[in-house]
Give the backbone structure.
Amino acid sequence: MTTDTAARTRAVVEEFLAARLAGDTRRMVEIFADDVDWLLAENPAVPWIRPRSTGAECAAQSAELAEHTVAEDARASVDAFLVDGADAVLTGHLSGRVRATGKTFDGPFALRLTVENGRITRHHLYENSLSIAAACTPTAGTPTA
């Protein structure tokens, strides 16, 4: 049973990653459960980081991130993709450029997802929030968009 659960978890996470990469918000809404245990450290300087709890709110985070960053400068790589039953953990590195300030951010990340009944019920992201906040904070005298 655990092997079947792990295989289903891996398949849902892979589908989520493909939808996220494609910017397919509609599909992400379907993949997220109606209620999601969302954890991403609140960061008032970062417009796309805020509390979320519904599948639609969680799926919208991807579009909000794209709205505030330069697509050509966005990078994410996965170093490890571990699955244990209903839980998956991805680790890797991400970087990008904030559109309004022109500043860059980068650092490691860890993403913990839980899949129940074919949908993501937990999304906990741990990232270099200090680097992201600094990239979103305008330098004195620099105009913002």
